[in-house]
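Retry 2 of 3 after timeout on previous attempt. Resubmitting structure tokens to design endpoint.
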């Protein structure tokens, strides 16, 4: 046969053979062993390569289909297992260089045609070539070909990213492979100039463009997931590595220096000829300037590239001596931005907002790099370099301020960075900065407001430290007094800025603050007040000045008894001038009579806002100074004699503000009340201030207090009733028509404890109604746009509901409940026949005095006629008679099955109201309120039914919520008051009747989790209610017997119905009945077990009751199991029932002494039921999947069952149970989260199993565990087998072992540790196994080391755990995985430190390396990353940093022998610290920890570190050591000084 096929080569070469036949022959020749050719594989590769090269060099003319098949053939050969085997065996097979050229040309064609069709095979070929060393030589030997390939692939990737098509993974995998190959070659190059030329000529532009597209691409779900999440990041990193190694090698620094600093190199040039003519900066600038990409994309691509190139330049060359070169590089790269053209006026009209944003972001990144690298030293720049840097930054600041871009966040950040570099950069243009970035800036978006506030805060801090705060506010005042740039200026101080101002004012000397205040008062008095009437512009200026005065006076440090007298006198003078020179003229202006149409003038509104704000500020500050400083004399005191007697008695305006007449003030109030703005809000604040001042008097004027409270409520009533509002940022100057209701509501709720005692009952009811309305609206608006820092009416109301104050406000609590019940009555439909009979309507009747028992003791004898005791008693009894009547009505309606039918919308409304009710502290209600609430909830359960068309899941949620709230009521101290209006058995019957009737709706949702939750809630309610009946000890037997006979009657009805095929019988009813029997049985059994031996009578009563309950329950379970068809899983509801039944059978009341005669117990007929159940559970356990509820219930049953070994059927032992658990844990649906959820139940089962099993059975269990830890499991991709064995090991460690079992376990422990180490090594190669295997192994290893204290005596076995720690990955992990791995490694280290200190000293290097990995990972994850969006992620990193601090502290405190390593630990720390800029919160933890290690360092260690550390690291150490001496050491010595 071999002879037949030996002529194949001739046929392949023959021109007569058709191409289709040639391809068939070539394929056959490759796969067939019968074809014998010398060096066949090389011959076939050469043939196909030659054909393709000849075709592309125009020697052959072939059809496209044939060409494509040739490529496919080449691809098949390259990727074939045969070729790989031959190469592994050492055979030499290669490709020609010409095929690499052809591949490059094909890719070039695809680039120029902008189509990527039909290049998949070519990409596959190139991938195979590059990944096979013997083939990739055609690229690696000729670097030009590899560079060309990389360039073409990058361009193709850019085209794909720029298109709207979905991004595939093939091209990017090949691109990553090509980058890897090129970087290897690049590192081997010895000529840096040649590499620089290669990169700039061929790779710089495509690589930068590729990185730009990878950064700006809006990824979609259609894009390949691997590219989106991993490859894009890896390729970006490879681009940066390539550019750094190609453009910024150490050998090239001299060329950069020569070009950037020509004057410094002049002398060197005279001494000899130039070593090189390389102009790296000009080359890079040229490449960035032209031919980069399409004109529309050019600006954005350059902007993104400039900051990257500068970062790479600094990474390579930034040293203290090179800072000037670094600056000039900054200047050169800045010249590539369009922003630089603004200085010459080139781009001024051509930059769109999007362009501005891009350019400013690039500039921000450049300035950030300058600041973080400390390139700009002010003194050195001024003394040595003629302020060359200062001049550059100064021009930059001028450009930014000349072209204000207040809508772009980066504009503010750039100015902040310039200010941080040197405040003198912006000082000459401070007025422009204040105007464009603050006073006249129109900033409303939160994303822009945040950087604006950061800039202004930097200004505050800078001028505060320089003690030049008055200089700053001179400019602020100048800008305010200029004509307004816009018709409406935003308030000067937002809520956030006010906080920053407050921080600065606390640090400033009081005289500087008074200088600023005097300046503003003077300017206002002389410049604004005379011209404010009728002037819109002046009114705006007045409001701005008023807001500044308010902000300063409210946030400065208060006067007190230690304040110097000159400061006090100056403050008195200021307040007097403010009152006489501003407030009085404004009030006179406002009180002047005007026509109606004039009252709506805009200037008048702003003047009114200013006047009332200043009045309120003056009164508040004057009162505070009077209280806190005994030296302060209020201006009021000077004219106290002028205050009339009635004004003083009734607390008129004269009592608060001197020199203002009552009539005049009333006209001002009338005007202010007509505007829903700052003035109206200030009137409310003034009234509140008056209330506080009256309360401070020895005898309060109650009538005035009530009038004042009513005024505040009435002031905002109309605005609140409109129902239109917007969130408010808390700034008093930002109150408008829409934010006023929010501000008003905030004022009332935040001062409710002051106002509530003086409210009338009508006002309290109004308040409760508004509170309920706002809560209902808040529930509907939960998904609205997030304005976290803003206050909304809904947030305020929810805050009150969640506060601990509301339950203390009994009147409001009661009124709110009344309002809620009336709301329920409005939602529920009325009955067809007689609406009065409906319970909720009766409870919402308006003529019943629900509040009387609360209000009776609050009434004042002075003002109201005290009601007689008989009247109070009658009203009290009336409310309870009503409650009793409603209770009877509920029971009657439930018995007669007369429910109210609810639509779905009504059901949703009721559910919303129930959620609001759940916000109340239901356990703190008064007796009548508790009973009312109970009746409403019971009525909703027992007297309502949903329409057939309603959502069943919604109905179940509604019923579950009712049961949950009833349970909350039962936990209250007044829960037993319901028995005043009910018989306990009536409640139970009403509930069960309604639920059994409703159960027919739920037959098709019995497998849904909501059904299980509903059953749990119903069971919890029944359990609590039955316990209340038993604990009350009143008619216990009667109530429970009545309930049991009711359940038996339901069961017999159901059984009869089922046997007759009755349409109303359903499995849901069966489960409900079983749940009721189970609960009754459980409560009685539990109570019997807890009864002391003396109480025989109670025990006898309950025992007599328990026996028939158990009998009935057995029948119910058996009926349920009979109805369960063959091979159908057990209903979850049955498992707790059988568990309870078994517990009852094992209780003394039922066992009747079987402990003395075990055989008697084993002969009971119910044993078969338990064994059948046990067998069924063991069968279903491994297949239970993710049904957590079933698993927990099943494990609880097994715990009870396995506690009695005699119950095992046949020859079954504990091993069978462990085997079933092992199969469960290795199931596909089991996750580590599920294992954590059922860890308690698993441990309880194993405790019973291991406590009762024999030694031989335990050895078998150990063999099962060790089999799961064998390496073949992970090699065969059986990760879950390993997980189950690791989990079982951890669970075994939680069980108390003794005797032979304990010896057997610890005898196997070295084998376990070794297996864990090997499993970790294998699992770490696959990142998906980190959460499945690695984290559980770490947890198990930590537990093993803790439990093995004093048992694991061989140091080698303990030291094996270090191999686990040094293997686990700590980077590129998801947050949850990172947290788990970090905590696991830390716990293992801590276990070794605490339990095996002797081993630790011998393995100190391994310990330090393991711990250092944790430190490095925290530093990497905790570095500063701008705005941290994900708070949860950062919390994890903070916790990890805290653990590192704890370990450092523990090493320093407990491990004296580690002193010799202290210098080494510090050196490791500062070496890593030099590489990153840590987030302050993370740095705080790490610094506190390393300070404790520095405590161990002696003087010799410090000298050694200063001498041996590299230059950059040494600087970091010096800073650290200085801070240590300044903060930590001084504090420690201070503490030691006073320590005995």
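Retry 2 succeeded. Sequence:
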């Amino acid at each position: 046969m071999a002879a037949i096929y030996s002529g194949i080569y001739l046929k392949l070469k023959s021109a007569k053979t058709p191409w289709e036949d040639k391809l068939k022959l070539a394929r056959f020749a490759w796969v067939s062993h019968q074809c014998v050719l010398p060096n066949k594989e090389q011959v076939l590769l050469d043939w196909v390569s030659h054909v393709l090269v000849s075709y592309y060099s125009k020697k052959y003319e072939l059809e496209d289909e044939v060409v494509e098949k040739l490529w496919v053939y080449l691809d098949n050969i390259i990727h074939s297992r045969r070729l790989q085997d031959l190469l592994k065996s050492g055979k030499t097979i290669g490709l020609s260089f010409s095929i690499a050229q052809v591949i490059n040309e094909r890719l070039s064609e695809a680039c120029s045609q902008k189509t990527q069709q039909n290049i998949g095979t070519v990409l596959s070929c190139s991938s195979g070539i590059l990944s096979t060393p013997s083939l990739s030589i055609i690229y690696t030997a000729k670097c030009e070909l590899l560079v060309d390939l990389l360039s073409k692939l990058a361009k193709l990737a850019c085209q794909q990213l720029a298109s709207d098509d979905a991004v595939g993974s093939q091209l990017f995998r090949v691109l990553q492979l090509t980058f890897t190959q090129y970087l290897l070659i690049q590192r081997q190059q010895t000529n840096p100039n040649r590499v620089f030329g290669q990169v700039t000529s061929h790779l710089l532009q495509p690589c930068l463009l590729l990185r730009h597209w990878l950064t700006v691409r809006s990824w979609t779900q259609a894009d390949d997931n691997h590219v989106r999440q991993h490859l894009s990041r890896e390729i970006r990193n490879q681009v940066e590595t390539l550019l750094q190694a190609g453009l910024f090698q150490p050998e090239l620094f001299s060329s950069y220096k020569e070009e950037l600093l020509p004057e410094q190199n002049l002398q060197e040039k005279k001494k000899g000829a130039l070593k090189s003519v390389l102009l790296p900066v000009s080359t890079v600038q040229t490449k960035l300037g032209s031919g980069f990409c399409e004109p529309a994309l050019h600006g954005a691509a350059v902007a993104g590239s400039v900051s990257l190139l500068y970062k790479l330049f600094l990474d390579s060359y930034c040293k203290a001596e090179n800072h000037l070169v670094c600056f000039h590089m900054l200047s050169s790269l800045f010249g590539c931005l369009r922003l630089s053209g603004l200085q010459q006026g080139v781009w001024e009209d051509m930059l769109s907002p999007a362009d501005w944003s891009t350019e400013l972001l690039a500039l921000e990144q450049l300035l950030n790099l300058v600041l973080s690298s400390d390139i700009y030293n002010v003194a050195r720049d001024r003394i040595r370099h003629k302020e060359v840097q200062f001049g550059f930054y100064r021009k930059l600041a001028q450009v930014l301020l000349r072209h204000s871009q207040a809508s772009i966040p980066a504009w503010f950040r750039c100015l902040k960075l310039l200010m941080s570099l040197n405040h003198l950069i912006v000082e000459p243009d401070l007025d422009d900065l204040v105007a464009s970035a603050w006073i006249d800036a129109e900033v409303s978006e939160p994303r822009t407001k945040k950087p604006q506030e950061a800039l202004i805060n930097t200004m505050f801090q800078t001028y505060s430290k320089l003690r030049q705060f008055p200089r700053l506010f001179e400019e602020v005042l100048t800008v305010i007094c200029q004509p307004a740039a816009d018709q409406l200026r935003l308030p000067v101080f937002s809520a956030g800025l006010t906080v920053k101002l407050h921080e600065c004012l606390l640090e400033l000397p009081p005289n500087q603050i008074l200088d600023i205040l005097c300046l503003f008062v003077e300017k206002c008095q002389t410049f604004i007040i005379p011209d404010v009437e009728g002037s819109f512009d002046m009114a705006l200026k007045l409001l701005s000045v008023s807001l500044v005065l308010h902000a300063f006076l409210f946030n400065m440090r208060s006067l007190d008894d230690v304040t110097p007298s000159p400061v006090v006198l100056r403050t008195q003078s200021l307040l007097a001038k403010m009152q006489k020179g501003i407030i009085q003229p404004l009030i006179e202006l406002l009180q002047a009579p005007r026509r109606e149409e004039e009252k709506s003038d805009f200037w008048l509104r702003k003047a009114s806002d200013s006047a009332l704000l200043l009045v309120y500020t003056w009164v508040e500050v004057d009162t505070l100074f009077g209280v806190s400083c005994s030296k302060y004399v209020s201006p009021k005191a000077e004219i106290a004699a002028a205050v009339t007697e009635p004004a003083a008695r009734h607390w008129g305006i004269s009592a608060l503000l001197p020199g203002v007449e009552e009539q005049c003030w009333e006209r001002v109030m009338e005007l202010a009340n007509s505007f829903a703005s700052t003035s109206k809000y200030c009137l409310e604040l003034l009234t509140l201030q008056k209330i506080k001042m009256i309360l401070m008097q020895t005898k309060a004027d109650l009538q005035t207090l009530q009038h004042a409270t009513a005024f505040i409520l009435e002031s905002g009533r109309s605005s609140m009733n409109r129902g239109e509002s917007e969130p408010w940022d808390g700034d008093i100057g930002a109150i408008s028509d829409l934010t006023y209701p929010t501000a008003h509501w905030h004022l009332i709720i935040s001062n409710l404890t002051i106002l509530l005692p003086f409210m009338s009952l009508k006002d309290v009811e109004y308040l409760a109604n508004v509170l309920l309305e706002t809560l209902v609206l808040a529930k509907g608006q939960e998904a609205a746009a997030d304005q976290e820092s803003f206050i909304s009416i809904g947030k305020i109301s929810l805050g009150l509901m969640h506060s601990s104050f509301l339950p203390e406000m009994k009147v409001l609590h009661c009124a709110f409940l009344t309002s809620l019940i009336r709301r329920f009555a409005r939602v529920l439909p009325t009955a067809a026949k007689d609406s009065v009979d409906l319970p909720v309507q009766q409870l919402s009747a308006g003529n019943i005095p629900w509040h009387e028992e609360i209000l009776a003791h609050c009434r004042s004898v002075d003002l109201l006629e005290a009601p007689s005791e008989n009247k109070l008693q009658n009203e009290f009894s009336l409310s309870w008679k009503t409650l009793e009547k409603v209770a009877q009505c509920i029971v009657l309606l439930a018995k007669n099955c007369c429910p109210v039918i609810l639509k779905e919308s009504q059901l949703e409304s009721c559910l919303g109201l129930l959620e609001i009710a759940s916000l109340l502290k239901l356990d703190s209600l008064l007796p009548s309120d508790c009973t009312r609430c109970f009746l409403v909830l019971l009525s909703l359960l027992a007297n309502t039914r949903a329409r057939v068309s309603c959502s069943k899941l919604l109905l179940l949620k509604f019923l579950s919520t009712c049961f949950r709230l009833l349970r909350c009521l039962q936990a209250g101290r007044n829960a037993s008051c319901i028995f005043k209006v009910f018989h306990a058995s009536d409640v139970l019957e009403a509930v069960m009747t309604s639920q059994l009737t409703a159960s027919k709706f739920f037959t098709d949702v019995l497998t849904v989790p909501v059904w299980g939750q509903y059953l749990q809630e119903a069971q919890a309610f029944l359990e609590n209610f039955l316990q209340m009946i038993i604990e009350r000890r009143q008619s216990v037997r009667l109530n429970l017997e009545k309930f049991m006979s009711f359940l038996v009657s339901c069961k017999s009805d159901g059984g009869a119905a089922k046997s007759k095929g009755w349409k109303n019988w359903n499995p849901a009813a069966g489960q409900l009945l079983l749940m009721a029997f189970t609960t009754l049985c459980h409560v009685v059994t539990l109570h019997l077990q807890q009864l002391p031996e003396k109480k025989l009578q109670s025990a006898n009563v309950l025992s007599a009751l328990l026996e028939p309950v158990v009998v009935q329950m057995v029948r119910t379970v058996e009926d349920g199991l009979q109805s369960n068809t063959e091979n159908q899983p057990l209903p979850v509801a049955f498992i707790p029932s059988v568990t309870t039944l078994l517990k009852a059978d094992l209780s003394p009341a039922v066992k009747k002494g079987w402990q003395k005669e075990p055989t008697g117990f084993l002969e009971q007929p119910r044993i078969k039921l338990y064994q059948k159940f046990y067998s069924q559970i063991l069968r279903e356990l491994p297949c239970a999947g993710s049904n957590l509820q079933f698993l927990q219930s099943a494990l609880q049953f097994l715990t009870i069952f396995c506690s009695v070994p005699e119950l095992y059927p046949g020859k079954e032992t504990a091993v069978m149970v462990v085997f079933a658990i092992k199969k469960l844990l290795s199931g596909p649906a089991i996750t580590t989260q599920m294992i954590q959820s059922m860890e308690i139940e698993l441990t309880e089962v194993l405790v019973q199993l291991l406590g009762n099993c024999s030694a031989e059975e335990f050895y078998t269990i150990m063999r099962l565990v060790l089999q799961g830890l064998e390496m073949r499991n992970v090699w065969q991709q059986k990760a879950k087998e390993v997980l189950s064995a690791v989990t079982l090991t951890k669970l075994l460690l939680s069980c108390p072992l003794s005797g032979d079992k304990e010896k057997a376990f610890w005898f196997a422990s070295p084998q376990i540790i070794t297996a864990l180490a090997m499993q970790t090594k294998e699992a770490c190669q696959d990142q998906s196994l980190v959460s499945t295997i690695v984290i559980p192994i770490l947890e198990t290893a930590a537990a093993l080391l803790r439990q093995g204290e004093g048992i694991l005596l061989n140091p080698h076995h303990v030291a094996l755990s270090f191999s686990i720690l040094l293997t686990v990955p700590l980077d590129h992990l998801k947050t949850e995985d990172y947290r788990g791995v970090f905590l696991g490694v830390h716990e293992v280290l801590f276990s070794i430190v605490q339990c095996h200190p002797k081993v630790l000293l011998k393995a100190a290097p391994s310990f330090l390396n393991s711990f250092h990995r944790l430190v490095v990972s925290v530093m990497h994850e905790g570095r500063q990353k701008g705005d941290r969006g994900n708070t949860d992620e950062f919390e994890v990193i903070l916790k990890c940093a805290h653990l590192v601090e704890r370990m450092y502290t523990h090493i320093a405190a407990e491990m004296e022998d580690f002193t010799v390593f202290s210098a080494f630990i510090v050196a490791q720390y500062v070496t890593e610290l030099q590489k990153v800029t840590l987030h302050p919160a993370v740095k705080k933890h790490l610094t506190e920890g390393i300070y404790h290690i520095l405590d161990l360092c002696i003087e010799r260690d410090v000298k050694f570190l200063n001498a041996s550390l590299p230059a950059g690291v040494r600087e970091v150490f010096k800073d650290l050591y200085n801070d240590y001496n300044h903060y930590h050491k001084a504090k420690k010595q201070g503490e030691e000084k006073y320590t005995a």
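Attempt log closed. The mean pLDDT is 83.
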